[in-house]
Amino acid sequence: MLLFGHTYVPSEPFYHIDSIEALRHTPSNSVVALFFTPENLDIIEHLRLNSIRFALHVETATDAVIAENLGASYLIVLPKHGAEIQKVAEHYLFDAKVLGYIDAEKDLENLIEMRLDGAIFSDAMIKINS
Asked: Domain of life here (predicted)?
């Protein structure tokens, strides 16, 4: 299981962006994160064309399948959607890793029971404004 943002485990942060301009304020070779929405498709296309690793916040199995096909490296899910999306990811052999978004270590046990690929703690997410 991958852990991003756990106190004891060194990991790279994710940089949450909401515009291409915000991307310019992230370190090179970083992982950027954004919500999977129609409004962000231009940003996602920019990331793909420039081979920038990205994570997409998804809420449904359909969104997860589309995000995988768009080239997302990670799918960030709320725990309530985790089991369903992980099952789809395993069935279709996604390259993207499914990460449950949590605030505290006490929530990690739930993700382990769901057999998610990993967890991303809220501390691992750095908001970048344009």
From this structure: Bacteria
CA atoms within 13 A on the CB side of 71: 15
Q: How many C-beta neighbours within 10 Å does residue 117 have?
A: 19
Rounded Cα distance, 67 and 3, in Å: 21
CATH 2.40.50.140 at 2-121, yes or no: no
Backbone angles phi, psi at 70, to 5 degrees: -85, -10
Give residue 118's identity as a one-letter amino acid code: G
Please state the domain extents for the chain: 2-121
CA 38 to chain centre: 17
The per-residue pLDDT for range 10-56, each reduced to its tens digit, is 999 999 999 999 999 999 999 999 999 999 999 999 999 999 999 99
